[in-house]
Predict the 3D structure of the following.
Amino acid sequence: MTNIDGAREDLAAKLAAIPGATEITERRDGLWMSAPQLDVEAMAREMNALGYRLGTMTGVAAEDGETTVIYHYARPPLAVNIKTRTRDGALPSVALIARPASWAEREIHDFFAVNFPGHPNLAPLLRPPQLTDGFFRDAATAE
Amino acid sequence: MPFTIPIGPFHPALEEPYKVRVRCAAETVEQVNVTVGFCCRGIELLAQRRNWVQAVTLIERVCGICSSVHTTTLCRAIETVAGIEAPARAVYIRTVLCELERIHSHLLWAGLAAEYIGFQTLYMEVFTLRERIMDLLERISGNRVHYGMNRIGGVNRDIGEPAPVIAEVNAIGAAIERQLVPAFLHNATVTPRLAGVGVLSREQALEWGVVGPVARASGVDTDVRSDFPHGGYSDLGFRIVTRPEGDVQARVVVRALELLESIRLVTEALRRLPAGPLCAFEGVPVIPPGEAIARAEAPRGEVIYYVASDGGECPARVKIRTPSFVNIPALETMTVGQQLGNVPLIQASVDPCLSCTDR
């Protein structure tokens, strides 16, 4: 077994113990997990403990009004992308667990109006003052 | 009694808008709050209203300095979704452009840093070198900025005569080694002004998730070119530059030495430029449903692109994480305890790009 295989199996085993976790799949651009009901705070703590760095988070508007949120982690040579969904427009903040999440969550709040309970300062980051939270979602609806 | 000084949003460090509120006790900084978002153009949203070809042109406008790495990374993400392999010649040309762009970016920053510390002679010497790199980029692409070299599946233009480019790059490299590197490593005007200023420890660098030269100057050996080898880097090899000190001087030294590695990479890529086509296909690309991410090392650090397609003419989602987005917040820790007069220099040392950050 190579080191990469070992790291991948170690990651899979640790994540499998987290509530809401699903199977990890391997793609050309890294490892992916799609877990709509994932306990993201437990996930963030585990990824920290395993030495993975949170690169950023991506928000993608879903048709039912919820938002898909993807956490992009890396610990070379592994890149891990963990996909979950908001619940009633909210997802627990992981900003106090992983600092890079702070601005990423503020950006997703600006663009998609996702609430992140527990965020220390969910103030607008990039949103122009004449627009409202969720202006990416509003623009898509206006089309 | 503590007092608060608002710096910005106009020209707090470089000529882009952001705001820093600095709370001081006498001359010592106690707390810093950074505000960005003054030039949010909604580029990610606009990309969803452009077709795939137009989106590449749009994304080139994320940044005027590192435009090539943005379109390269976007195209790589799209190619992953579509299962396209760019031809080897195109991959090498992309590598050449990205490294020339890094040399340009680092020289631009070094010149401005020299100006900030009042070393006008060095500033002019550095900008003379920068101009020669811009001439090279213009010779290759036809443009001084926004090179328009990338397309989905490959590149738009060839480098037909590598030999003169190699000769000029090596001449510039020799000048960098002779003039710039000794100035930033040993000059008595430079080093006392930078050493020990704006320290970010290795632990803090890891905690804040900083990337690029800022991370490497704090002893974190991270660089996408070695962490996730792609494109020409898999064949050309790569030597990472790190320093343990974590101060402004270390950030300067890392960038200065990285210039030499970029010179080597450009030279090697041009010497080994594979024969073959410039693009994997002819005509308009059809992108099937799917999603992918791509990473690359921009001059300021790791850039991440997430692309989703629903099979339509336009991207369903383009997400861009630029390096300044994670480097700028760390100003809030590296300025605490510093002298107020050093704040502009510390800000400049992370090479903040607000065009990238705000998008």
Observations:
- Chain A touches chain B at residues 27-30, 53-56, 58-60, 70, 72, 74, 76-77, 79, 81, 98-100, 102-104, 111, 124-128, 135-136, 139-140 (CB under 8 Å).
- DSSP finds four helices and five strands in chain A.
- Strands of chain A lie at 24-27, 30-34, 53-61, 67-75, 78-85.
